[in-house]
Amino acid sequence: MNSIIDRIKQNRLWDFAGGVHPKQFKSLSNKHEIAEVGLPETLYIPLKQHIGVEGKLNVGVGDKVLKGQALTHSTNPFAVPIHASTSGEIVAIDEHVSAHPSGKPETTVILKPDGLEKWCDLSPLSDYQTLPKATVVEHLCNAGISGMGGAGFPTHIKVGSEKPIHYLVINGIECEPYITSDDRLMREHAWQVRQGIDVLMHLLQPEFAIIAIEDNKPEAIQAMQVACQDADNYLVTSVPTKYPAGGEKQLIEVLTGQQIPKDKHPIDVGIVMQNVGTCFAIADAVFAGKPLIQRVVTLTGKALKAPQNVWGLIGTPISHLLEVAQYQAKKQKAPRVIIGGPMMGFTAASTKVPIVKISNCLLVPANKELPLPQDEMPCIRCGACADACPAGLLPQQLYWHAKSGELEKAQAFNLADCIECGACAFVCPSNIPLVHYYRTAKADIKIAQEEKEKSDRSKARFNARQERLEREKQEREEKRLQSAKAREQAKAAREARNQTQEVDNASQEASPQSAPVENKSDKVAAAIARAKAKKAAKNAQDDAPATNSSEKTDDNRAKESAGKSTPEPTTGQSKDERVAAAIARAKAKKAAQNAQDDAPATNSSEKTDDNRANESAGKSTPEPTTGQSKDERVAAAIARAKARKLEKEQAAKEDANKLTAETASVKEKPAPKTEVTASQETPVKDASTPKVTQKPSANETEEERQKRVAAAVAKAKARKAERDKAKAQQEHQNNSSNSGEH
Amino acid sequence: MSLFMTSSPHQHVKRSTATIMRLVMLCTVPGIAAQTYFFGWGTLIHVAIACTVAVVTEACILELRKRNIELAIKDSSALLTALLLAISIPPFAPWWVTVIGSFFAIAFVKQLYGGLGFNLFNPAMAAYVALLVSFPVQMTAWTPPAQLAEQNQSMMDIISIIFTQFSEEGFSVTQMRAGIDGFTMATPLDEVKTALNHNQTLTEAFSAAQFTSINGFNPWTWVSLSYLLGGLVLLQQRVISWHIPLSMLGGLVVIASVFYLVDADHFASPVFHLVSGSMIMGAFFIATDPVTAATSNKGRIIFGASIGLWVYIIRNWGGYPDAIAFAVVIMNMAVPVIDYYTKPKAYGHDKQRTHSLNNQNGGAE
Q1: Residues B48, B119: one domain?
Q2: Residue A20's closest chain B neighbor by CA?
Q3: Could you tell me if B165 and B18 lie in one domain?
Q4: Which of A136, B176, B310, B320 makes the best surface tag, with the fewest CB within 10 Å?
């Protein structure tokens, strides 16, 4: 069907780079059947025996438990439960030395067996083929099955994947010297292993199951061949003995000639690998309903009188198994028990360390069997390590960098790809504990990364806080500015009113009719106002040619003046002001009419004229016809005049600046401000006579008489203000024309 | 029971650095024997001097550096360096040449860089180059094979020559170097170079006395073949890999063949180049020094072939008749670059070898 399967069928396999051929010593322990051992006095069952998270305890101290009863539960997908390995009483739940290189204590259920071996109710799933996949997967999870080859990855996650699977690889390589647990298991329980494979085949639906066994285990190969002979797509394959052929990545390369791309998992390319021990446990769980409470443990090494394989209950302290295998203390000057094989195993911290789901071997070497580490000599760059490395790394470069703490360089040499198989240190003539250096460097890198993440997080937090503070500051500033502006506008509006009065007075002074107007003749005033309005319109038109170079500017100005005058009707709460606004509206109509009438006579830019008209309209021209307080009308007239004057000045200013329309509009912005400032200045300058200035605006609505007096005073005042203002504006003009040059 | 804790792997192959060094020394025995047989006792005397000086120097410097002397001496690396230097020195060279050379090799080339494993240059070859440049007369005073020499070369004569520069009978080094015909004898490489410089053809050059065969080969060829024997044992014992020796000899053969085919009158045959001088010895014993050679197999091939090329270039167009030391030292300098560019592809990083099962099966289905 495809070349890979063809080659596997013809046993033409590939090879992986590097690798070593350590002496096997398998015959020490593979001679006898897997033995049952008696119950230990106490079982120490750690909560976490797999990669992932531990579950929550179901039981408490003093509880009686039955064999196979779940001790933990969890809804976390990366949690698998643990079970009572036998019936008995939970005497403690405490920290206990762990089956980990560090021996660091971890939470452990301590179980006193009652010797009855009474099982809890078991629920087999013999009809698994008819059940939904999820049910079977959940069953496997509940049975506490995690990979028994070494890493302890939860099996239900691997088999629960929805990715398409082409090959299910059953790993019966057992490439570590000394260990024979999988060998014995396959020899004695081939059929049950096959049943486990059947379950996996059903769950994963791969095209082929490849059962890979190293060629130093001919009996196991034969047993598996017999067990699988009826299934065409079960390929029992003999793999050349080379350490570490049993490594997941290496075995895949041997079988398929391809490598798993970095940062990918076998499942990403359609391969799932399971250990034979796991298959056995799966069959136990599905067909007998038994959870994972025991495993095959090889007891070997020349310091044991009776090396053998045994069924070790999970939680059995290693001291119990050493007794079973007749440990001979005198053969060990430095007592040492290796959990796992001689290449990747670790030394137990104490004999109370329990057997866990991944403990496949206890190796107890005699004195000269596996000599203690010798003095580390200088690296002579012989390159033997690089030749041995199955991951294609440069161990000596990694060593230099790891030793000198150059973690980044070590990472650049792909330290992360090191599988810690120990082949490099195995061949090193200088006795350099290379793997130890890599482990340390990896741990340092992990710590550094965690710290970096932490500092990144706090940095991000700090930055966010700074941003927030900055933002708040800006918001406050904006608010402040806005309120200041509002204040200024209000002030300006007030000011404008004041000045209107003044200007009006001034203009009245200038005209011969001013005297009678001043003498409280409403009609006359109205007439004057009308004339004034006309004149305003005309002026506006006259101004037009000068200003129409920048329509936009005019627009702005119009809005601006409008804005300035709007507060008057809306914010000026006094009844009089509202009346004034009504007058202004009427006036505006008229002014517009005037403007239109005059339009043909004057030049171009209707818009400008319109604006101007609107503007003048906005500028609340009092209508004399209505019975209004003279002061207000006067004020309106003054405002009008004032507005005109401002316009003129601005137009002049713009001409002076000779800016383009756009620039002008940009430039325009400061202008109103300055205007405001100018008008603001006025009251400040008038501060010498505050009574007078304030009075007309403050007391306007109160007493007619007072107002009249005030008006007279205001008139005088206005003149002064006018002058000041003109001065200020001229100054500003100079400034802005200066700044325009810059 | 408290348990002893060690780090994995717990199993090791039993071949220490010291074992490797001693194996290499052992494998020089056939070559040294041949050298002694044809060129007298001088070589052995120099070996003895060199080894003594090297070990003493190493001990003194380690003492100064406050390092473990015993551990470092036991690795035998200083002895090996001294041995390789001594067999490269002409038998009649004065004793102080060897003393200076050994001291320089250990003190400057090795220990000043940080000791074993840290030296950039091959200590024996760097010292040889230093000696050759400093004492060209003494360092080129190769003797004729004893069988062809005019003067008798007893052990006492040689000792006398080495320490006083005059034999027991009062002959000077120059007189001792004279052949049967009374002419001072040079090495074949030297002879060929001189002849070619005098516009002679190779045929004329090869008629000289030193090309006389003894037992089928000329003496220099015999020595080379003896070193080859030792080198093959090293290969068989997996002390060295084939990459450096083969590529080095191959590099030389390839370029020599090209020029030989173009102009056989002026360029010696590849076979002559292979068995002359210290080419064989260099390929198996010198260039394979792990400390100063490239570490990856690809790098080793580049390293070896480049040495072969340099040897040919210097032999033909350089100022010295032989060039192993120069070529090795030159390529020592290039090792970091070679190593950098010949990093092996880590598992899963090589795109061509990574898994494309999905594609394959996608096609098949």
Answers
A1: yes
A2: B13
A3: yes
A4: B320
Which among B19, B293, B353 has the least Cβ separation from residue A259? Answer: B353
A24 vs B: CB within 8 A? no
Whether B347 sits inside 8 A of A249 (CB atoms) is yes
Residue B124 in domain = yes
The beta-carbon contacts of A589-598 under 8 Å, at least 24 apart in sequence, are A589/A617, A590/A530, A590/A533, A590/A621, A590/A623, A591/A533, A591/A536, A591/A537, A591/A616, A591/A617, A591/A621, A592/A617, A594/A533, A594/A534, A594/A537, A594/A538, A595/A537, A595/A540, A595/A541, A598/A537, A598/A538, A598/A541
DSSP strand pairing (A234-239 vs A208-214): parallel
- Quickly state the pLDDT bin for A677 (edges 50, 70, 90): very low
- pLDDT higher than 60, residue A515: no
- Residue A512, classified by CB atoms within 10 Å of its CB into exposed (0-12), middle (13-18) or buried (19+), is exposed
In a domain, B333, yes or no: yes
Using the Cβ of A426 and the Cβ atoms of chain B, whether some distance falls under 8 Å is answered with yes
Chain A positions touching B361 (Cβ under 8 A) are 2, 166, 207, 270
Closest CA to A49 of A362, A363, A353: A353
Residue in B1, B4, B11 closest to A343 by CB: B11
Taking contacts as CB-CB distances below 8 angstroms, the residues of chain A near B11 are: 22-23, 177, 342-343, 370, 426
With a threshold of 0.95, does the pTM exceed it? no
* CB of B342 less than 8 A from some CB of A: no
| Residue ranges making up the domain that contains B308 | 186-343
Residues B297 and B325 in one domain: yes
Q: Which superfamily does CATH assign the domain made up of A2-292 to?
A: NADH-ubiquinone oxidoreductase 51kDa subunit (3.40.50.11540)
Domain endpoint, select from B166, B185, B204: B185
Is residue B364 a part of any domain in this protein?
Answer: no
Tell me: do B256 and B222 sit in the same domain.
yes
pLDDT at position B73 is 85
User: What is the count of residue pairs from A and B with beta carbons less than 8 Å apart?
Assistant: 203
Q: What does the alpha-carbon distance between residue A326 and residue A332 come to, in Å, rounded to a whole number?
A: 13
Determine the Cα–Cα distance for residues A233 and A204; give it in Å rounded to an integer: 14
- Is B173 in the same domain as B48? yes
Residues B181 and B192 in one domain: no
Does a structural domain hold residue B143? yes
Per-residue pLDDT band for A734 (boundaries 50, 70, 90) equals low
Q: Which residues of B touch A17 (CB under 8 A)?
A: 344, 347
**pLDDT at residue A495 tops 90:** no
At B180-216, the pLDDT tens digits run 555 656 677 777 777 777 777 777 767 665 666 666 6
Closest Cβ opposite residue A259 in set B9, B20, B354 = B354
For B322-358, the pLDDT digits (tens) are 789 999 999 999 999 999 898 888 888 877 666 554 4
Query: Per residue in B212-247, pLDDT tens?
Result: 666 667 788 889 999 999 999 999 998 899 999 999
Whether residue B225 sits in one domain with residue B126: no
Whether the CB-CB separation of A428 and A384 falls below 8 Å is answered with yes
Whether chain B has a CB inside 8 Å of the CB on A578: the answer is no
**A344 CB-side CA count, 13 A:** 19
Domain boundary pick from B165, B185, B205: B185
